[in-house]
Amino acid sequence: MAGGLAACGSSGDDSSASSGGSKTVTLVSHDSWAASKSVIAAFEKESGYQVKVLKDGDAGTAVNKAILTKDNPQGDVFFGVDNTLLSRALDNGLFQPYEPKGADRIAPEYRADEGRHRVTPVDTGDICVNYDKAWFSEHKLTPPESFDDLIEPRYKNLLVTENASTSSPGLGFLLGTAARYGDDGWPDYWKKLKANGVKVVDGWEQAYNEEFSGSAGGKKAKGDRPLVVSYASSPPAEVVFADPKPSTAPTGVAQGTCFRQVEYAGLLNNARNAEGGKAFLDFLISKRFQDDMPMNMFVYPVTEGAEVPEEFTKFGPQAEDPETLEPAKIAAHRDQWVKSWTSLVLK
């Protein structure tokens, strides 16, 4: 969620290492990849590999590009395919099997593709509507709490969301409504949401940092939408990055609008440095990385024993009862749902 380093470490020297492979391991990711320099440096020192990071836009865009280049991939490991897009990546043969060291520490509820080990869970988070506390206080309006609330007239022209065909949170929000209202009910819900003035933009960065009035970026950009589809962990980010730090988060979460997201990484088929890629996947579920990750990407760890920062439990706890959908159901319906959503909302 939070922006990070454009490249961690250096591209290094591609001359042969003692193992006979490249000294560089290349990670392909969406734009929200971030890690502490010291943690990457420790991996580089211990493994002997230099880390290169290539960012390819929002998650949906990055996955589509990885599929298009799968015969000659840009890197060795792909990070950032989530449960909303997982079947697309697997059905297109994006990954080769590898079970990382320490995989037994991954909490069972986050595991997927267990029989074949083509992907490894790395983090989890909840896609939810966030609200600008100050705006609602000034307008003496109670913030929405549920999907049902969002279509009420008092919230007209207040919500901005992301395009479900190009954005991971946008798709997650669509899937949340499908889980809530069912195969037959979600289109009618979106007709009402459209009539109530929902605004759709391409991706999360634009929605959250330009259109949303409650974020630090949105304030600078003079965003005028006090409701945005983002994450349950967005309020802690607003606290952590503020200077001075406020005692309470300036934004809140509508708990009845959340959809549970899990992000995965995998070893790309035709990876030039498969051994380096395997070492990097081991690293992604190591305690060092899992402990470091929350305050960099503002997501929750998936391994048992990983530390969750106090800011998360205080300002951005996980949803108690998020909407979920079985991966098989997402795989069977996602493309048609997105097509129908596009016709309903964008045309």
Summarize the structure.
With 347 residues, the protein is an alpha/beta fold. It has helices spanning 37-47, 59-68, 86-91, 133-138, 147-150, 168-195, 204-211, 216-220, 234-240, 274-284, 287-292, 294-297, 310-315, 327-346; strands at residues 24-29, 50-55, 77-82, 95-96, 120-132, 159-162, 199-201, 227-231, 251-253, 259-268, 300-301. Helices cover 38% and strands 17% of the residues.
How would you describe this structure to a colleague?
The chain has 14 helices and eleven strands. By secondary structure, it is of the alpha/beta class. Strands 1, 2, 3, 4, 5, 6, 7, 8, 9, 10 and 11 form an eleven-stranded mixed sheet that branches. Strand 1, helix 1 (37-47) and strand 2 (50-55) form a beta-alpha-beta unit. Helix 6 crosses helix 14 (327-346). 50% of the residues are buried.
Cα shape: globular
Number of DSSP helices? 14
Whole-number radius of gyration?
A: 20 Å
Total strands? 11
Provide the β-strand percentage band: 15-25%
Going by helix content, strand content and strand pairing, the class is alpha/beta
Mean pLDDT across all amino acids: 92
Spell out the helices and strands N to C. EHEHEHEEHHEHEHHEHEEHHHEHH
Helix content: 25-40%
Largest sheet: 11 strands, mixed
CA-to-CA gap between the ends?
A: 29 Å
Task: Note poorly predicted spans.
Answer: 1-20
Please describe the topology of this protein.
Elements lengths: L23 E6 L7 H11 L2 E6 L3 H10 L8 E6 L3 H6 L3 E2 L23 E13 H6 L8 H4 L8 E4 L5 H28 L3 E3 L2 H8 L4 H5 L6 E5 L2 H7 L10 E3 L5 E10 L5 H11 L2 H6 L1 H4 L2 E2 L8 H6 L11 H20 L1
Parallel strand pairs: 1-2, 1-3, 6-7, 6-8
Antiparallel strand pairs: 3-10, 4-10, 5-8, 5-9, 5-10, 5-11
Helix pairs in contact: 6-14
